[in-house]
Specification:
The structure holds 2 protein chains of 2 kinds. By secondary structure, chain A is of the alpha+beta class. Helices cover 35% and strands 27% of the residues of chain A. Chain A has 3 domains: 1-69, Replication Terminator Protein, Chain A, domain 2 (2-Layer Sandwich), CATH 3.30.54.20; 123-171 and 206-404, 2-Layer Sandwich (BirA Bifunctional Protein, domain 2); 417-508, Anticodon-binding domain (Rossmann fold). In chain A, a hairpin with a 5-residue loop joins strand 16 and strand 17. The radius of gyration of chain A is 29 Å and the shape is globular. The two termini of chain A are 49 Å apart. Chain B contains 4 helices and 8 strands, in the order ββααβββαβββα. At the A-B interface, helix 1, strand 1, helix 3, strand 4 and strand 5 of A face helix 3, strand 6, strand 8 and helix 4 of B.
Chain lengths: 511, 124
């Protein structure tokens, strides 16, 4: 390939009529190309691209000259069925990447290497966070340390949402067909839903939490005085994905979504957008993520009047501008049921992930005939915002694992301190220390195995535990502890209570 | 010579000779830009720089920082891969070879099984 680049072939396009095109590829003994041409519609323009002696059937466009491809790397080989069908012959697929400059290629390859080291599937296994089994493809199992991590994240999420005035509900996983007909999922989303039959009636496992939340809203008569009504739900949803699309925790068939539905008056939209943005900003900043905001506006096919859309979009823009945030507008990229603001999170490798979103929904109040009693004593439909901060909790944890490369800050770490006695003579004292730490709300593990201390330390390092406490003769006599920090190394001899209070501050401030 | 009007992204308009290539228009704007240009959008349609312009159009030059330009760049790369494979293995039959996110691939039908060492040879 380097040679072809150096030969600086000009790339030229030409067209052939159908019959000639077929003959051309037959003469070149390219049966697959012949098949592709034959499958093109009768009136299709059939174009070819030529570089030196090489000609390929192709719609283009292309570069002007092969010399522009200065840096190439072939990465892997895989089997791939012709046209993606297992009835056809398996071909050999070569994957590669390329850049205009060698430096860009090198940077990209280094990034890939780093991402590989941080792969959440590898780290998830090494750190005992989660597992995936053939018995449940796309349905991850969370192991004790993974649950600890998830619970810590959830309790933080809860604390932030509560401080911004949210209440929390739980709606059932399985609900009947008539609800999904009302929401439209039964007609528009059925191929992604798992269904079942109970007492000869059709039911579906929820792919989204919204319909259940609407039933909760309908359960009471609401007054404008209650608004804004902020209802959140950590709901486990199931969505069918093709088995080939599944990927660790990033793409699964069952996940927990940190949903919230906010019911409000039109004049409250701006404040609510600010409120949600505050929540997302707080959580992302704490976790060390940068993010960008994008506003998507009315698509061609949309429900609701143009005035409704314009009014809502104006309010979203005003909210963003009043907060002084930089944002990008994606014209016409909103969902058919309302404009939205997306948060594009950037991890420490510079990769972006779509997680948080604020979505205005003109359709839900209509479908579920929602209303509130206004100041005029009349019924009105509320404005509904649907929002998530983390999105799929499972995916978010996958992102966190890769972002931190498994080295979670102390407040998030499933095990915060590991106590390592040098020999079994110090087990009892070590146990006392572990108990005191536990009593202070610190997550502790002990390693009482009959192994050399060097080995125990190395293992604790691999587990990426933030602090190790090492106990031997000297420590027991002086009633002190020896501390080793994952990030700062040997911290010397310390008083246990001083260590506890320092660590508690570190945890509380989420440093 | 007949003239046509090219409207650039910043709203400015350039008068050029009819039949000029996109590349020559870009070169006229800035020679540095021509070095970095990968492809262009002519009236919002993705176009190669070798294409000629025959009527009044809007023109947006694409550099490697745009995903569309990356696709064009990687698509040409896949053709170079196919050309290299055909040089080394004239019996290889070509399948398809598109650009994908962050790269490209090409499918080949060939008796010989490719190895890692082969990839290094093909890269040369």
């Amino acid at each position: 390939m380097e040679k072809i680049v150096q030969e600086e072939f000009e790339i030229n396009r030409f067209e052939l009529p159908r019959e000639e095109a077929i003959r051309f590829m037959e003469e070149r003994n390219e049966p697959y190309k012949v098949e592709l041409i034959k499958d093109l519609p009768e009136d299709a323009v059939i174009s070819f691209y030529k570089q030196g002696d090489f000609v390929d059937l192709c719609a283009g466009p292309h570069l002007m000259n092969t010399k522009q491809v200065k840096a190439v790397k072939l990465q892997s080989i895989a089997g791939a069925y012709w046209r993606g069908s297992e009835k056809n012959k398996m071909l050999q697929r070569i994957y590669g990447t390329s850049f205009p400059k060698k430096k860009e290629l090198d940077e990209y390859l280094a990034l890939l290497e780093e991402a590989k080291k941080r792969d959440h599937r590898k780290l998830g296994k090494e750190l005992g966070l989660f597992m995936l089994k053939d018995e449940g493809p796309g349905f991850p199992f969370f192991l004790p340390k993974g649950v600890e991590l998830k619970n810590t994240l959830v309790s933080y999420w809860r604390e932030v949402r509560k401080s911004e005035g949210y209440v929390e509900i739980e709606t059932p996983i399985i609900l009947n067909r008539s609800l999904w007909e009302t929401s439209g999922h039964w007609y528009n989303y059925k191929e992604n839903m798992y269904t079942t039959t109970i007492d000869d009636m059709d039911y579906a496992i929820k792919p989204m939490n919204c319909p259940g939340a609407m039933l909760v809203y309908q359960n009471d008569i609401h007054s404008y005085k209650e608004f804004p009504l902020r209802i959140s739900e950590l709901g486990r949803v199931h969505r069918h994905e093709l088995s080939g699309a599944l990927h660790g925790l990033m793409r699964v068939r069952a996940f927990t979504q940190d949903d919230a539905h906010i019911f409000m008056l039109p004049e409250q939209i701006k404040d609510e957008i600010k409120n949600v943005t505050r929540i997302v900003n707080k959580i992302y900043t704490t976790l060390g993520f940068k993010y960008k905001m994008e506003l998507s506006t009315r698509p061609e096919k949309a429900i609701g009047s143009v005035e409704e859309w314009t009014e809502a979009e104006t309010k979203l823009k005003e909210a963003l501008e009043e907060m002084g945030v930089d944002y990008k507008i994606n014209e016409g990229d909103g969902a058919f049921y309302g404009p939205k603001i997306d948060f594009k999170l950037e991890d420490c490798l510079g990769r972006t992930w779509q997680c948080a979103t604020i979505q205005l929904d003109f359709q839900l109040p209509q479908l579920f005939d929602l209303s509130y009693i206004g100041a005029d004593g009349e019924k009105h439909p509320p404005i509904v915002i649907h929002t998530v901060a983390l999105g799929s909790l499972e995916r978010f944890i996958g992102i966190l694992i890769e972002h931190y490369a498994g080295r979670f800050p102390a407040w998030l770490a499933p095990v915060q301190v590991k106590v390592l006695p040098i020999t079994d003579k110090f087990n009892e004292y070590s146990n006392e220390i572990a108990q005191k730490l536990r009593a202070s709300g610190i997550r502790v593990e002990t390693d009482f195995r009959n192994e050399k201390i060097g080995y125990k330390i190395r293992e604790a390092q691999l587990e990426k535990v933030p602090y190790m406490i090492i106990i031997g003769e000297k420590e027991m006599e002086a009633q002190m502890i020896s501390v080793r920090s994952r990030d700062a190394g040997d911290m010397g001899s310390q008083d246990l209570n001083a260590f506890i209070s320092g660590l508690k501050t570190e945890i509380e401030t989420k440093k | 010579m007949e003239k046509i009007k090219i409207t650039l992204k910043d709203g400015s308009i350039r008068e050029v000779e009819k039949g000029i290539s996109v590349y020559d228009v870009v070169k006229g704007i800035h020679s540095g830009l021509a070095k970095e240009a990968i492809a262009a959008e002519v009236d919002n349609t993705l176009t190669g720089l070798y294409d000629t312009l025959t009527k009044d159009v809007s023109l947006n030059v694409l550099k490697f920082d745009s995903e569309k330009a990356q696709d064009v760049f990687r698509h040409t790369s896949s053709h170079i891969l196919a050309q290299a494979v055909k040089r080394l293995y004239p019996d290889a039959k070509l399948g398809i070879g598109p650009a994908i996110e962050n790269g490209f691939y090409y499918d080949f039908d060939l008796e010989h099984r490719f190895t890692e060492e082969d990839l290094a040879k093909i890269e040369k």
